[in-house]
Amino acid sequence: MLGTFSYHVPTKLHFGVNALGDAGTLTRPFGKRALVVSMTVKPYLQPSFAILKKSLEDADMTVSVFDGVVPNPTLSSVEAGSRFARETGVDVVVGFGGGSVMDTAKAIAVGATHGSSLWSYIWSSDTQPTDKTLPIVAIPTTSGTGSHVTQVSVFTNEDERYKSAIFNERIFPDLAIVDPSLMVTAPAAVSAPTGFDVFTHAFESYIHANTSPIVRTLAREAVGLVGQCLPVVLEDPGNLEARTQMALADTLAGMCIANAGVTLPHGIGMAVGGFYPNIAHGQALAIVYPEFVKYTLAAAPDAFELLRQSLAPAAASPQDAIETFLERIGLRKRLRDFGAKASDLDALAAQCMVLPDYQANPRVTSAEDMRAIVEAVY
């Protein structure tokens, strides 16, 4: 018998090639003063950034820009953005970029209108964002985090070497504009880890303890799209159809994690990001995944058969499939390849047990098992 479940994504989605040109018309109802949040705009995105700025200005909006976003955002960087927003005076925050930009834009939307340190609003805190949070418009330029349709903002407390998140309904973007044409110029070094992140979101929500029939349906579609289309965009970056399908997969996977969540690999990946900010989030997950598949396979064989069929159907086993796929997309690495230290492993394994993600895995991890997994991927 089908059990009780809930599904909720309040974000308005505007999806399509050249959808960026509608940004001004769609954003203007949120106010007149827009803060565009971005990294320093790469040359390949400057024409698109100009389209966004003109669209907002044509809608009679004033545009300020905060371009101090850093990869794997830090508490100090999101606090700096919040101060800028308060000093400038803004009505709506527009994130234009990848997952780090989305995380920062969401945090700024909270920090601009709340007095406390943003660290006081992380998921484990009794203090949470209020309805004073500014409206958020999310315009992704990569297919990766799904953050344009989730209630999560991830950043690292660099003093504590701890990566955590605000997890709150009030930071669902009010509007997401997904324009696949923004992604055709992304280099493989960006598309590979972000694209694998899409897969992990879909797959982990599929096996999550809180999954549902809707989540599983969306996740199956997303997993299949990544298996088909990520290798294509790496071989042919300008393939707009493959980019469109990856953007769709990213959106579906984001909806999945907004309603189910992630499991063991993300808890480890978050800890890795806190210890080693030089490791991209998707790459951290890729480091973990072969050992995760080995560890969890017996507890969810049907789900891992979906992984095999989606990523490498000719592979003899799910473990062979994940290793084959990661080799194909250039992400088969170990922690030591990025300068990780063996002396960190005890503390890293302990940090992996802080977030509760491992508890939603089909095979729940003990502290001893976690230490062994971390050792195995080192």
Descriptive report:
- Belongs to the iron-containing alcohol dehydrogenase family.
- Residues 10-180 form the Alcohol dehydrogenase iron-type/glycerol dehydrogenase GldA domain.
- Its cofactor is Fe cation.
- Keywords: Oxidoreductase.
- By secondary structure, the chain is of the alpha/beta class.
- The protein has two domains: 12-182, Rossmann fold, CATH 3.40.50.1970; 188-377, Dehydroquinate synthase-like, alpha domain, CATH 1.20.1090.10.
- The protein has helices spanning 23-27, 46-58, 75-88, 99-111, 188-207, 213-235, 240-259, 264-275, 281-296, 301-311, 318-328, 345-352, 367-377; strands spanning 12-15, 33-37, 62-66, 92-97, 136-140, 152-157, 162-167, 175-178.
- The strands form two sheets. The chain has a six-stranded parallel β-sheet, sandwiched between helices. A two-stranded antiparallel sheet has the order 6-7.
- The protein starts with 11 loop residues before the first strand and ends with a helix.
Q: In the CATH classification, which architecture of the largest domain applies? A: Up-down Bundle
- Quickly count the domains: 2
Uncertain regions spanning at least 5 consecutive residues: none
What is the strand arrangement across the widest sheet?
1-8-5-4-2-3
Number of strands: 8
Short description:
By secondary structure, the protein is an alpha/beta fold. Helix content is 47%, strand content 11%.
